[in-house]
């Protein structure tokens, strides 16, 4: 039995590659992208938090607490994790992006199985790590706050300062496909690419 897990959906970006659109709220195959992500992550966790910095009322409509970054200036996924770690009621926190509608249904179990003595477990396919698909111990909150206070923003640089393990998901490479542009969204919405 794994410890309790809080799931955090990272929806706090500016959507620059999507023309400034809020990616999580973009329609995809008849629903918003975040609804696809919620369907995948909700059964895997004990609670869900949504990290968002705009359209907060729309995100609240999905029935979960919505957190905004405490670090100003759209500081990236670590700022979303930072806010979540301060709110999460679980021993473990998993992050997933709002633009990966096919994330693995066994993501949390597989990351937790490998976490053991590490502080962070990160998904990997082939030789590519997927740093926003991570499971971390809530006890890293102070370490992350210090990293951010010193100006750190790069996820990989923060992981390098922790005991981090990568977890192989080579059997599910499509689970980590994210949709970054309106062109990708339209292509996948028509059934191409997934």
Summarize the structure.
This protein is of the alpha/beta class. The chain has 7 helices and 9 strands. The chain has a 7-stranded mixed beta sheet, with helices on both faces. Strands 2-3 form a two-stranded antiparallel ribbon.
Which SSEs are present, and which pair or pack?
Layout: E1 5-11, E2 27-28, E3 31-32, H1 33-41, E4 47-52, H2 56-60, E5 66-67, H3 77-87, E6 92-97, H4 107-115, E7 120-125, E8 128-137, H5 141-149, H6 155-160, E9 164-168, H7 182-189
Parallel strand pairs: 1-4, 1-6, 4-5, 7-9
Antiparallel strand pairs: 2-3, 6-8, 7-8
Report on the architecture of this protein:
A seven-stranded mixed sheet has the order 5-4-1-6-8-7-9, with helices on both faces. Helix 2 links the parallel strand 4 (47-52) and strand 5 (66-67). 29% of the residues lie in helices and 24% in strands. The termini are far apart. The mean pLDDT is 88. The chain has one domain (5-189): Spore Coat Polysaccharide Biosynthesis Protein SpsA, Chain A (Alpha-Beta Complex). By secondary structure, it is α/β, with parallel strands linked by helices.
Notable features of this structure?
194 residues, seven-stranded mixed β-sheet, two-stranded antiparallel ribbon, 7 helices, 29% helix, globular
Low-confidence stretches: none
Stated plainly, the CATH topology is called Spore Coat Polysaccharide Biosynthesis Protein SpsA, Chain A
CATH architecture descriptor text: Alpha-Beta Complex
Name of the top-level CATH class: Alpha Beta
CATH superfamily: Spore Coat Polysaccharide Biosynthesis Protein SpsA, Chain A
Helix fraction, binned, reads 25-40%
Rg computed from alpha carbons, rounded to a whole number of angstroms: 16 Å
Order of helices and strands: EEEHEHEHEHEEHHEH
So what's the overall shape? globular
Strand order of the largest sheet: 5-4-1-6-8-7-9
Structural class: alpha/beta
Task: Return the average pLDDT rounded to an integer.
Answer: 88
Number of domains: 1
Number of strands: 9
């Amino acid at each position: 039995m794994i410890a309790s897990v809080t799931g955090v959906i990272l929806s706090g970006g500016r959507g620059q590659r999507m023309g400034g659109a809020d990616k999580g709220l973009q329609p995809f195959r008849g629903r918003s992208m975040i609804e696809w992500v919620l369907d995948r992550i909700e059964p895997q966790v004990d609670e869900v938090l949504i990290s968002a910095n705009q359209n907060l009322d729309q995100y609240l409509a999905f029935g979960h607490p919505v957190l905004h970054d405490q670090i100003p200036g759209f500081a990236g996924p670590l700022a979303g994790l930072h806010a979540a770690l301060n709110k999460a009621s679980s021993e473990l926190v998993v992050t997933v992006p709002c633009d990966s509608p096919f994330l693995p249904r066994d993501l949390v179990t597989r990351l937790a199985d490998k976490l053991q003595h590490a502080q962070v477990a990160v998904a990997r396919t082939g030789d590519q790590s997927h740093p926003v698909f991570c499971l971390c111990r809530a006890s890293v909150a102070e370490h992350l706050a210090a990293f951010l206070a010193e100006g750190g923003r790069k996820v990989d640089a923060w992981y390098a300062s922790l005991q981090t393990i990568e977890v192989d998901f080579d059997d599910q490479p499509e689970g980590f496909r994210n949709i970054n542009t309106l062109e990708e969204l339209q292509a996948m919405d028509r059934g191409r690419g997934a």
